[in-house]
Amino acid sequence: MTRLLISSFLLLILGALQSQSLTPIQEKAIHTLVTDNVKKGSPGLAIGIVQQGKIIYEHYAGLANLAHEVPIDELTRFNIASNGKQFTALCILQLANTGKLNLADDIRTYLPDLYPTLTAPITIRHLLQHSSGIRDVYDLWALQGITWWKHTFDNDDALALLIKQQELNFAPGTEHLYSNSNYILLAQIIKVVTGTDFIDYANTLFDKLGMPHTSFVSSHMQVVPHKASPYANWQGWMEYPYLSDTHGDGALFTTLQDQLRWETMVQTKISKVFSAETIETSQKAIANTAISDYGFGLTFGQYRGLEYHYHEGSTGAWKASFLRFPTENLAIVVMSNSGSINPFDLSRRCADILISKDKLAKDRYPRRPDTLGPYIAPTALLGTYRTKGGYFFRFVKQAEGLYMERYGRESIQLEHEAGNLYHQVSDPDWKQAFTKDPIKGLQVTGFYPSHDPYTLTRIEVNWQDYNYTSINGDYLNEETGVRLTIEFQQDDKYVILLNGEKLEGQLYAPDFLLVDGYKIQIVRDEDGIVPRLLVNSNRIQHLHFERITNNN
User: Fold this and answer.
1) For 395-409, what is each residue's pLDDT tens digit?
2) Where are the beta strands (DSSP E) in 116-165?
3) Which alpha helices (DSSP H) does 299-420 contain, by range?
4) Bridge partners (DSSP) listed for residue 164
5) What is the CA radius of gyration of the chain?
6) Which positions ≥6 away from 72 have C-beta within 8 Å?
7) What mean pLDDT is reported for the chain?
8) β strands within 266-411, DSSP E
9) Which alpha helices (H) appear in 283-335, and where do they start and end?
10) What is the pTM of this model?
């Protein structure tokens, strides 16, 4: 072996050894993050880091049970909520590898009562990547006035609600919209294919993977050994209520050590259950589809310009985050039982400490545009702006100057900062950059240190001859049994009665009504009559409400 090869080999060995431990500065910085988040006598967290297939950091802080002052330790089991989706996906992948099913199978091969009138295929692949268009059961229950943590629902209840659905949010495979229903249905398909309860099948998988303290849970009353009870700080710590029995989409209880074992398998591609090729497949977007940002229970994106794979989970006060940086062979896992801790932020702040600055080239959240455009006078900015999803801003002129209005919130005064950039008077970190797109016209992009920028486009709004009372009446959605009543008040304001609750509605554009968390699109026929409404929320789109009475 030449001297050059020997030197190169030694450098590789040295690099591997260095990557398998934290520097004192890194360890102190991460410890400071933990102590800043976990106070004495409070619920807490477990945090672990794996690099180059080795566990290089593992720490526990806070209490798993406040009443008995039980500390969080290596035996503590957390509910990692939606982070469990990757393991539901692994069960599907295992069945596909053994020929028990095919990802291209239509889900109605196994669940024939779903959407019998829809001809478009809805495949297992669509469920895996949230491209099925199937509405989220939790959002449907919320529309019915049901709060998930106040009622006990299981997978059979979810299936019964989905069987009543006649339409989808969109054509399968054309869009990506996160919906927990997809993974509840995957659990049902596993049950049908194997003839075994989904949890039993998954537990067999966990045992083979060497993760004996990991299991989905189908009953909120089930005894979970060493469970970290969830707590929220409502003028003092109180246990967060939890009655839900749905699973497959979440409800996975696990220990940090079990999760770190899985992360080592992902990095080393060594497993008694899965081949290296299968593990590699599980960490990629699903081939031959238009969806590239979600795969087998895994989201794909970039963090500060560096490729990463990740997922977040939240069920009440239980929260969890895992990040994987493939080019760094680095994984960060954070699990918490405190409603006051944000594992999503904490895991990324750990990444900031662990990854060299030259690789994290971009700001986490841009605070302003890279370059400023020409000045645009406030009078030229006035009007209504909208995102594709129906989020609205209004810019109006008042005696004191330029103001921004948003539904359900107080108006905000803006002032010019530089070029095409304005900011909020009371919070200068919140900036708005106005640009003129040659096709879309005037647009505004909002910047803030705690979230990604977002852009709205100005729309033409003409209120002349608009008939405000034409939408008064009662409307019914047969798929959920929900009825709503609309009554015009004055200006652009309405009173909405939904599930016995009186809400305020406001028109932000002709035939586009905002009500609480819902966006209602008014549908008119050629004579201007309103036969129906389309109700949209975060994970519900185009839910038809047919008019049953006219209150004009």
Assistant:
1) 999 999 999 999 988
2) none
3) 343-354
4) none
5) 26
6) 44, 45, 46, 60, 61, 62, 63, 64, 228, 337
7) 93
8) 299-303, 306-315, 318-325, 330-336, 383-386, 392-398, 401-405
9) none
10) 0.93
